[in-house]
Amino acid sequence: MTTAQPETVPKSFRPVEFEVTAGGEGFLLGSRCSNCGAHFFPVRQACSGCLHADLETVRFSTTATLYTFSVVRQSTPDFAVPYALGYVDLPEGVRVMAQLTGRDPEDYQIGMEMELVVEPFGADEDGNEMTGYRFQPKEGSQ
Length: 142
Known about the structure:
By secondary structure, this protein is mostly beta strands. The protein has one domain (14-137). It contains no helices and 10 strands. It has strands at 11-12, 18-20, 26-33, 39-40, 55-59, 63-72, 83-89, 95-100, 113-123, 129-137. The strands form 2 sheets. A 6-stranded mixed β-sheet has the order 1-10-9-6-7-8, with no helix packed on it. 20% of the residues are buried.
């Protein structure tokens, strides 16, 4: 008789702002103000618009629009250069900075549609693989 192995949930490198499901899907986590409806990233304790303290943690959409980007040509030894770092706008009205992936750094275009992707992001001090997020162009995006 074979017993099913428990499915391990990938470990997020920032569990307060990035959730990874057992199925490997990733979601950015933020806050939504129950008073005025404003959204924030990362999670907050109070609304900066109306100062209301009743905020709920929400999962954001996994699609975005590239607002702007820069090509990084000099970095720490942990990151191979060049790479692209950009701001993406989520449908909820939140702008997030993230590394971009899926193309040569010079091939991104402001306004292109992007999607969140889950990628390995190094290991913790115990050697457990960590998972992080980046944004890549949606299939068919110019």
